[in-house]
Amino acid sequence: MKNVILFFVSVVSFWTCSQKKATIIDKNGEIISSNIVKKINEQVKHYPKEPVYHVYVKNSLCLYEVLVNDFPIGKMFDYAQHATPYDMNSEILKSGKQKITLRLYPAPEEYSRSGEVLSPNTLCNLEIEYVDNKDPNHKSIPIATLKLPTKIRMAGEHNDMAIPEFEGAGKKYYEITYEFEATVPYENEGWKKGQDLTKLDQKLLEKKVIEFYNSYKENYNQKKTDLIASNEYNLMSRDAIAQYQDKNKVSKIWNERLDMIKVEKNWLPFDYKMNLYGNGKIIALLQKSDNDVRLRGESALAFTYKNDGVTYARFLGVYLYLPEGKKLEDGLEVIR
Q1: What pLDDT, on a 0 to 100 scale, did the predictor assign at position 49?
Q2: Which residues partner with 28 through β-bridges?
Q3: Domain ranges of the chain
Q4: 159/154 Cα distance (integer angstroms)
């Protein structure tokens, strides 16, 4: 009998299905599975310079989450060293000042003498850079190195030794937001025209989010690829425009999604908590469990599937908003 290994694959995905049809932009009909790649490719422009912004996170004695313009782009809850940078372009909607937020949590007790609180020796640097997509040498251009604030503790026999310590030492949670400047040749709408969800009826909001997630799941179960394509168009276009994707890249992404639509699924229990992003304009349902590092911070909508005898898990990130002028009773939409 084959040993079955369970791997959890984190996907900051933008897969969703709306209860309403997407805007018809093809004079011969809607966006469907067979034409979505072509239509997205028509929206992508190329420029003499195509900057792609990244952030490296270098951490010690802490776990973290990173958000750009209050949208999650990366996390580390298993206390490992991640060498791969996080791409920020999809969250950079236009040129100008961008906000990057760092949320810190204590490292597991076996790695730190500080127990359940952040150590005075906690380190977490953000190194921001960009690479010009048109540069054949892919030379990295540094933008900024952002470090945690420190405070001075006096020590020594004569109390004359200044020792810098992390400002958030002793806390169970610490958050800080920095700013950096980005220049990009495109502009995406994103969630800029979304309503402040904190000002709406929270019970009705939760009901509408759950309805959307259930509709999304049902479309997956019924393998409605055309309906999913019509609702994925705007979001996939945002990614493609921000990342200067060519037709082959868009095609590869869509084919990977088709593969996930077609696989036999075993849905994980729908145990959720609501999270707001985008300064209150975006809502998502996340796994309720914070104790299992495989689930922490992941989408509440997830399934397992098998490939060559190995079991994998896929988390489907569904991020919703309510456009200006629309009533909550009419339902939420996927962010653009």
Answers
A1: 97
A2: none
A3: 6-45+189-334, 51-182
A4: 5
